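Bump. Still looking for MFS transporter structure tokens.
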Amino acid sequence: MTVTSTASLPASSAAEATPNKLPKRAALVSFVGSMLEYYDFFIYGTAAALIFPKVFFANVDPGTATLLALLSFGIGYIARPVGAVILGHFGDRIGRKTVLLFTLVLMGGSTLAIGLLPDAKSIGNAAPVILTLLRLLQGLSAAGEQSGANSLTLEHSANSNRAFFTSWTLSGTQAGAILATLVFIPVSSLPEDQLLSWGWRIPFLLSFFVLVVAYLVRRTMPETPVFEDIKDKAKVARFPVVALLREYWPDVLRVIVCALIATVSTMTAVFALGYATSKFGVARPTMLWAGVLGNVTALITQPLWALLADRIGRKPVFIGGVLGCAVLLFPYFMLVTSGNTIAIFAVAMILSGVVYAAPNAIWPSFYAEMFEARVRYSGTAIGTQLGFLAAGFTPLVSASLVGEGPNGWVPVAIFVACCCVISAAAAATARETHTVDIADLGKRRA
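Sorry for the wait, here they are.
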């Protein structure tokens, strides 16, 4: 009897030969790593909306301070395309696992440093400058996290369930948002003086434990059989970004435009949080709990959307969810500004937890399947991070667009809805890949 090692099989066969082990383990590793890394990333957004205007930008008027704090949030997204080029290069050159370990250390270290940073009263203008630099480091790290985790999980998965297992990377991101918000809820309930002096630092200092847990979980994961296959065959691109832009520029452009759907996420998580609490007197815990409920709902619905995408295709689920978001933005703002707690919880669960969860669950496989393995990390990283620039500055743009009065949110809703429609149009031009073998993904078509 001849025993065949899965290591000697082609990449697609190796993934099929271990359906109950490595795909599940890869999904778990990606889930935990993304959860803990994006815990770090999301606590900055919450702090930028509620805390930083009074702590690091206290030397200007409140309105300007809010805009500067939101600008510092958006600056983290400026670093992400740069990080995508650098980390994408090494992810396609030396492997997915090594780069993913580096992103954890960079994110954890910069977040811990923010928690230890003296405020503007102590060191003056140096405080916001250092804060912004640390936010840039967070952006560099985040640029490589999701794309690397998506590639890792996709390349360990069987052809029949790639969307399902890869969706757990974004479920991890949702869990990170939940964890960040749950930590901030008791902190935000502290008396104002305690909150602004030391309370806000607690979520950032906890990142040390986040870093240790994520590193221990991720370091034992093997490299993907797909990457090992192209490495063994000496097919690793010397300069992956050059090969990507030469051969796959239409797909990179397509991912950039599709990624505009992320404007929905930062609009609800950052802008709407500050808008409802400051302009309409909605209690901070109410908005924070609404975010938690939306993300908890998404943890349930995202795997279900991904299962559907494995059956009927990526495009119908992605496009349907994106257009659904465009429609629901208007009732979302109407109910969030109503002050009715039950209505706020319900609309947050529907928009974030059900409708937005559809494209959020699908894009890890949808984008990654546009590229072949030798440029997959770079392609998804660069495409998404350039697209996410719009999401990063959505809170700032929204704060600039918002008008006076109870319907001041209308320009914001129109802006984000337009981003959704453009995203759906770009997705409609993509190739459907749910029935394509992993070895044939990204192959140029005649």
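The chain has two domains: 22-223, 240-440.

Edit: fixed formatting.
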